[in-house]
Amino acid sequence: MRILVVEDSPLVGEVLRDLCVDLGHDAALVTTAEEALVRLRVDRPDLIMLDLRLPGMTGGDFLRLPLVRDAGVPVIVVSGNASESQVRECLDLGAVKFLPKPVPIDQLERLLEWFERPPRARRPDSSGRSAVERRRLPRARVELPVLIHESDCSEWRTTSVDLSTQAVKVLSSAAPRPGPTVEISFVPPGEAEPVRAVSLLIRVDADGYVFYFLNLTEDHFERLTYLVHRLTSSQRPS
Length: 238
Description:
CATH topology of the largest domain: Rossmann fold
CATH superfamily of the largest domain: Response regulator
Helix content: 25-40%
Radius of gyration: 19 Å
Order of helices and strands: EHEHEHHEHEHHEEEEEEEH
Strand order of the largest sheet: 7-8-9-12-11-10
């Protein structure tokens, strides 16, 4: 399925686009509603993921346009601070679903599967693995001290719950609600140098926060790959 992500924050947009790709879809990113209109005219997508607050034309303005309403392309509205009345208005204007930020990945996956009729086979990548197989990366249960640096220069400490090469889950007990983008740092067991990465909050659970790494260096990625492999190997039942 061909998905157009309309999101003015490049970091958030790239994560949403990559999530759609990891779920087996073709996804493109634009940062304004005006760009989305051009795409709608010349390269019609199968589905649009639309941020509500955009520079220039807003998501609500986009939904009101006759071209958008007549195109018949399903629109999922995504926003982190929409009021109840704004959500109702978007649905009245034709949006098929509203998702909060951070986007619940399980809900997004179910929605995309529902709109994809009939479900198509996931295309393998160059390694021969399907997108679904790529998404199910190994996760290691590990308790590590984690330092969270907020964008306002404040810091708080917590403990990891599990770790993969793409994301980390940390405990939320006694921790403040983090901002949408933070810097995370932690020291892998047996090492002296910390791993640092700008990270996006992608899920809020009852017991913790899940952050997606945005800018891991090649060295940090290799260190995480080795660590996760070592931990998951030791945690397998004998």
